Amino acid sequence: MLRYILLLFLSLSYISTFSQVKFGVQLSPTLSFNRLDDDEAATGFDNDGIGGRLVGGAIVDYMLQENYYVSSGLFFVPKRVGVRNIDSGVEEAYRLHYLQLPATMKLFTNEISLDVRLYFQAGFTLDMKILEDNLSEDPQFISEFRPVDASLLLATGAEYQFGYSTILFGGFSYRRVLGNTIRSTDANVGDLVIKNDLFSLDMGIKF
Fold this sequence. Notes:
Blueprint: H1 2-17, E1 21-36, E2 45-47, E3 51-65, E4 68-85, E5 91-108, E6 116-134, E7 142-145, E8 148-162, E9 166-177, E10 182-185, E11 194-206
Antiparallel strand pairs: 1-3, 1-11, 2-4, 3-4, 4-5, 5-6, 6-8, 7-10, 8-9, 9-11
């Protein structure tokens, strides 16, 4: 199995050497938390807690012209949703797993030092839910989450050219869900509007 993985990476490295495409992998230790929309949410509720998660996946950068790239890929993105009823003190937490497809622009500076340049990334993601799990023993608030979300993605960091075609990179990213994550709530709860946020430390390699 290991030799097939190595063969895949060598093949991607060979392809990217003679094209405008860079392939890579990324791992991102992440803080997952959520917001309640006070204008529309049912009264008496508040967000509850922050969860540590690990986001990971493959990236593809396609060069439009020097320093301008279209960046996409496929990521596994776990999220945490926590909500607390202020009056009763009852807390509930939910675990959601998504496959995320980014559509972003990535802009690079010229080299700020030998083989090092900065990047700035912005765009949107399509998040498709593959797992929904209630972590509470007796759920009372949320019945179901939406199968699809959309997020704003902002990121910045630095790349280091290591060798002829290998690039190491690191930075920070912020994903902000644009719509209501909840599809339906229990009848006595009202209209809860919850939106997820992810703040990540990004690390990866491109070939």
